[in-house]
Amino acid sequence: MRTDLPPLPSHPSAEDEVLAGLRRRHLREAVAALPGRCPQLVAALAEDPPPTYRELSHRLGMPRGSIGPTRARCLACLRALLRTERYA
Q1: 7-27 burial, b if ≥16 CB within 10 A, otherwise e?
Q2: Distance CA 61, CA 21 (A)
Q3: Taking residues 54-80, what's their average pLDDT?
Q4: Distance between CA atoms of 55 and 61, rounded to whole angstroms?
Q5: CA quadruple 40, 43, 49, 53: dihedral positive or negative?
């Protein structure tokens, strides 16, 4: 193991903070551009702690059994949108 390397910084650099902010903004914009209930569902799933499917069912007015499949479709759409935006 090399010991002659400088120590890693204990806090992110200004550049890292700016890039992280840009990534967060880009992600928020992409989530907002999703169709239907996807923005509300994805935002709720990002909460800490995430709500239960029972809570989501009540909040979004959708059957509990449709939350998982809807979540999968929303996340696939989000991935595609981010991929398109990033490489377009």
Answers
A1: eeeeeeeeeeeeeeeeeeeee
A2: 32
A3: 96
A4: 10
A5: positive
